[in-house]
Amino acid sequence: MVIEHNAGCEPLAALLFEAAARPDAQALAALALQSGEFSLVEGGVAGAPFGCTELLCEGLTIDLDGLAPREACRPPDYAHIVALPPDFDPAGLAALTFAPGPHLAGAQHLLPVVRVAAGLVLKLAPLAGLRAIIWHPARTIMSPAWFAESIGIWLAGGPFPAMALTALIRRERGFDSEGLAFLVGQEFSLQAKGEAPSREDSRIAVRLTDWLVAHGRVDAACEVVLTGAGAVWLEPAGQDRLNVRVL
Questions:
Q1: Which pLDDT tens digit goes with each residue over 2-46?
Q2: Angle at Cα 4 formed by Cα 103 and Cα 33, nearest 5°?
Q3: Which of 7, 9, 39 shows the shortest CA–CA distance to 123?
Q4: Hey, how many other C-beta atoms are within 10 angstroms of the C-beta on 54?
Q5: Which helix (H) or strand (E) holds 191?
Q6: Which pLDDT tens digit goes with each residue over 153-198?
Q7: Which of 49, 94, 102, 210 is the most buried (most CB within 10 A)?
């Protein structure tokens, strides 16, 4: 049996565990004490029988639902698999859902909130039995090691983790982004420079993702020079999409 998440905000992530290893609030409390970087809101351990507890990190509260001994949560759908074996099968795994607390309703899209939330998922990665992480806005399922590496680099001042918190969909003539609209309100369609998308085109798409996250939505056509990737032409196509051409 699974349950639906009932927190105030839509889930940002799901943590998929081996069924027998799904943690309870006591395990979270032990990890919080060990790391010293987050804590359980008062009453969190006592709330273990209800399967949901609040975590406090950098002044923000995050709801973690589906803790043992309650039934696991229903994981969000995914479409993109990253850094997992080709035959990886999440069937039989038990999910915890991870969502900003109700007081953050409407602010869950803001980059500072996403940074704290992704950083907190990173802090939960040492929990025993964790097999995969799903980032809901991009519908990406990935290995905990990949998530930890890419998020860790970002939080240390590196580039935005475009292949963890967003995704690229390869098309016949280019790439489409997915999950970027959650952060900037727009997705992009990048037209390949040649007849088919190349590795260079994918690198440009990753650099463009980083640029858009840093600069925000684009409301007028413009040329942008991407560091190490050259120039691209951005042209809005409606309210929520950008057409991109490599110059």
A1: 444 444 568 899 999 999 999 998 999 999 999 999 999 865 444
A2: 60
A3: 39
A4: 17
A5: strand 187-191
A6: 999 999 999 999 999 999 998 999 999 999 999 999 999 888 788 9
A7: 94
Give me the helix-helix angle, 25-35 and 111-124, nearest 10°. 100
- The amino acid sitting at 59 is G
**Is-contact 150 143, C-beta < 8 A?**
no
How are strands ordered across the β-sheet holding 187-191? 167-171, 174-178, 187-191, 241-246, 230-236, 222-226
Q: Is the dihedral of CA 148, 133, 72, 17 positive or negative?
A: negative
Residues 22, 83: Cα–Cα separation, whole Å = 22
pTM score, whole prediction: 0.91
Amino acid at position 161, single letter:
P
Structure tokens at 35: 């790391």
- For residue range 91-129, what is the model confidence (pLDDT) as tens digits? 889 999 999 888 787 888 999 999 999 999 999 999 999
Please count the other Cβ atoms lying within 10 Å of the Cβ belonging to residue 247. 10
Q: Six-digit token pair at 209? A: 């993702």
| Side-chain-side CA neighbours of residue 159 (13 Å) | 17
**C-alpha angle 232-237-242 in degrees, rounded to nearest 5:** 35
